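Standup notes
- DV: blocked on the single-chain target, sequence here:
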Amino acid sequence: MKVFFDSSYFFPLIKVEVENSSPDILSLAHQVKSLELHYSSITLFELSAKGARMIKSGKLTSNDVIEGINALIRWRDVISIDPWNGEVQRLAFYFRNDHSDYIDCLVLASSITTANMFISEDTTLRNLLKTKWVTTVGEINPRFKIVNADQLKVTINEIEKKS
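- DV (later): unblocked, structure below
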C-alpha cells in the first residue's frame, strides 16, 4: 500500500515538535514492509522555511535544519514525489479555489496521484475531501483516503495481524 505523509510529520527531523502529531508514526510505518512511504519534495522547502523562522528566533541552529533535511533526502525507503507534473498542478489549482494554502494543495494533489492513503492531521483538508472534493478525487483515485496518524496506527495493526 502506498502511503503519503503530510509535511508536518517530518518536522521532528529538524527538531520541531508539532502539536497533535504522532512523532513515532514515520518509524512505525517504516517497519511495515507492505507500506511504501512517500512525501512531496516541497516538504524540503517547508522544512527549510520553518527552520529559518526557528533559527531567527534562536530556537534552532542551522545545523539542526541542514542535518534534518539531509536525513530526509538520504532516507532511501521514503520516496520523494515532485509536484510539478501537469496532473498534479491542475488538481492543486482546483483545490486552491477552496483552500488558501497552495503548498497544502500541492502536497494533497501529489498524494492523490501517487498513493492510496494520505496521512495528515489537517481537519480542513479532511473535511473538504469528504464533502466538496469527494467526486473529483474519486474520479482520479477511487481507492484514495485521508487519515490521521492514529487511524494509520489502526491500519498498521490490522496489517500486522494478517501477517
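- Follow-up: Residues 42-56 form the longest helix (15 residues).
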